[in-house]
Amino acid sequence: MAIIIDDISHTFHEYLLLPGLTTQQHLPQNVSLKTPIQRYRPGKEEMKAHLNVPFVSAAMQAVSGPELAIALARKGGSAFIFSSQSIEAQARMVKQVKEHKAGFVESDSNLAPTATLEDALKLRRRTGHSTIAITENGERNSKLLGILTSKDFWEYKDDLSQCVKGFYTPLERLVFAEEGVSLQEATNLLWKNKKECLPIVDKNGNLKSLVFRKDYYDHHSYPDELTDGRKRLFVGAALNTYDYMERTAALIEAGVDCVCLDSSDGYSEWQAKAAVELRKKYGESLVIGGGNIVSADAFRYMAEHAQVDFVKVGIGGGSICITREQKGIGRGQASAVMDVAKARDEYLKETGVYIPICSDGGLNSDTQVIVALAMGADFVMMGKYFAMTEESPTAKISYRGRLYKPYWGEGSNRARNWQRYKQSDAAHLIFEEGVDAYVPYSGPLSDKVGVSLVKLKSTMCNVGVLSVKEFHEKARLTRVSEMTVVEGGTSTVEMLDRMKPNED
Ligand code: MZP
């Protein structure tokens, strides 16, 4: 007879945290959210590869492109660039993130000296940028002749058919710097010369980038920025279990910091084989994640046979996922995280090795993120949460006066399954495991993550902890009844915005 697990599968929604003693030290500014992403020996060595905040974005076409990866690394987390694309395209996206130089901006507004003020105005309206580089042929990387800003002409007074030539500030009257200058030196030049913008040119006078005073302030609003040893933004990428050797080589060449074998069911010899081969070739310098799993025995297998650095937990809980309906496998996300976290702690006791775990999928609110971390997740992976933001790779659409973004599963027909689900269903997509849907637009990633982190830190202070590790050790959670959930809502008062007119 089959083994029947008596305990039912639980979700995060069924738990609440109890407050612990909050001392005067427990202030949000004292909370550290630094969390490991690579196995290590606590007490014997320092945390190795880590995140500054415990958020990563799902390796999905509708989520993790380069723009989102840049925005998330600046907040202290990491994206996993999706693998359901060609090796070249994925490596290109990684390269784009690694080449993003905070503070050095490639000019997207350029005109030739023969252009008119009308052209300048049109360009300004299109890009929203008021600094225009005047270059020899009007292209980004050609010889810089000067800079035209909105202060140089009056839209309603000047004759707009005039050529920009008599209006822009020529190079000889500009403060500029040569390529190779550090961001700090560039910022000092701006400060000393009381300038808003500093063009950077190469030896031949060709425009390379621009440094803006406003970005200096911006930089200060990203204190958790996650970078590599060369101060380039951190980025991860997903792998499949087919072309992993070739793909990893290209991703490493592009500068990837971390890879993750990405399967809907990772408890397989395919994953172990891929991880072991990669480890053999790249040694400990390559951070390799694996998953997804939902049980303690699968964790053991990933730790011992696959020897991965971190393990992703979660099957069937994703907002776009229909695996449980289609195939009857999966587990309530809270039960899965608790079981795997227990196995991880036992493994640490036995071997002295700590293998971080990531709760992946089904996190529908900040409270669920908080509960997942309290239950033992070292970090969380989210798809829908990030698909809703400005920086996800899809275009916004307007429907009945509200803005939405498309969001589809990697196991949906739209994602064409690529290689991820190929293992179980040969090369054909016989049935879907994900849906193609829309999610409400939620604005810039930075604002959204900012609010989530404030809530997380605030709860940690209520619990009386200052680190993720302490959160795991000290959190006390209680199961809630349905009536407790009702009691926690606003069921006994009328909300004005929900009252119908003339109700009485
Ligand atoms: P969510 O944050 O949108 O709830 O879930 C995102 C997670 O769902 C991904 O990280 C991945 O593990 C999983 N996923 C992605 N595509 C599918 C699918 O098509 C899926 N079934 O389950």
Task: Describe this protein's structure.
This protein has 504 residues and is α/β, with parallel strands linked by helices. Helix content is 32%, strand content 17%. Strands 4-5-13-14-15-16-17-18 form an eight-stranded parallel β-barrel, surrounded by seven helices. A hairpin with an 8-residue loop joins strand 7 and strand 8. The radius of gyration is 26 Å and the shape is globular.
Number of helices: 16
The rounded distance between the terminal residues' Cα atoms is 62 Å
Based on DSSP secondary structure assignment, what is the total number of beta strands? Answer: 22
- Give the helix/strand class: alpha/beta
The percentage helix is 25-40%
Q: How much β-strand is present in the residues?
A: 15-25%
Strand arrangement in the largest pleated sheet: 4-5-13-14-15-16-17-18
Largest sheet: 8 strands, parallel, barrel
Mean pLDDT: 92
Rg, Å, rounded: 26 Å
The outline comes out as globular
**Bound compounds, please?**
ligand MZP
Low-confidence stretches: none
